[in-house]
């Protein structure tokens, strides 16, 4: 058969990555509920793949904190706890302070133009905003900060916890629907701190910015662990 007739199938490794992306999006998008049992056979049937890529994806998602693998019981969607929030918050604070201190001197007109475009979207919201849209705009703003920090390892750490931050932001926005009041103003304040081009001012701006979200999350009625 001619080579140009059949498209090559993705390798097992590539397929595992694709399945991971799909399941991660389903978890962070609320398609699966905290504590829900993720059965390999059912997932394989639904995604029309063998159980190998499913098993690989669940293992990766466990490393990211989205899934718990329980011996002899299988995989379960992780349940949000106060310990999770504290650990991710402190890790995010550490890497985002570094990212901000570097990005503030590297963003230039192009980087701030990208931030301003997101801020305009935030500012234009004048009615009740869907929690998913609030999360999308929030992360879109911070993605720019990480992209311009010019630090590959920091970027990779952010990508490894971004999914968990998504879950936290969704929980926060659902319980405290105050995006119309603070979404634009808080991100604009951070943008202005970055624009000073002073690494210390950028770090102080980050500390103030993410502390507010953390204080709201701590008020959620969650188990300790």
Automatic annotation (TrEMBL):
Signal peptide: none annotated. SUPFAM superfamilies: GntR ligand-binding domain-like, Winged helix' DNA-binding domain. Residues 13-80 form the HTH gntR-type domain. Keywords: DNA-binding, Transcription, Transcription regulation. GO terms for molecular function: DNA binding; DNA-binding transcription factor activity. InterPro entries: GntR_C, TF_FadR/GntR_C, Tscrpt_reg_HTH_GntR, WH-like_DNA-bd_sf, WH_DNA-bd_sf. This is GntR family transcriptional regulator. It comes from Microlunatus endophyticus. The lineage of its organism: Bacteria, Bacillati, Actinomycetota, Actinomycetes, Propionibacteriales.
């Amino acid at each position: 058969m001619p080579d140009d007739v059949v498209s090559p199938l993705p390798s097992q490794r590539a397929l595992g990555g694709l399945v991971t992306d799909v399941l991660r999006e389903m978890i962070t998008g609320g398609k699966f509920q905290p504590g829900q049992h993720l059965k390999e056979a059912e997932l394989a049937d639904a995604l029309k793949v063998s159980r190998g890529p499913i098993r690989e994806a669940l293992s990766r998602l466990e490393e990211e904190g989205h899934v718990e693998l329980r011996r002899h019981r299988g995989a379960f969607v992780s349940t949000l706890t106060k310990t999770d929030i504290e650990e991710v918050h402190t890790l995010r604070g550490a890497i985002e302070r570094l990212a901000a201190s570097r990005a503030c001197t590297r963003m230039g007109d192009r980087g701030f133009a990208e931030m301003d475009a997101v801020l305009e979207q935030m500012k234009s919201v004048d009615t009740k905003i869907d929690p998913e849209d609030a999360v999308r705009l929030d992360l879109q703003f911070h993605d720019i900060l990480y992209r311009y920090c010019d630090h590959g390892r920091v970027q990779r750490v952010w990508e490894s916890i971004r999914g968990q931050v998504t879950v936290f932001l969704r929980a926060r926005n659902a319980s405290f629907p105050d995006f119309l009041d603070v979404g634009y103003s808080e991100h604009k304040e951070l943008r202005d701190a970055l624009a000073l081009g002073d690494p210390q001012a950028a770090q102080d701006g980050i500390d103030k910015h993410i502390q507010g979200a953390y204080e709201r999350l701590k008020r959620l009625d969650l188990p300790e662990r």
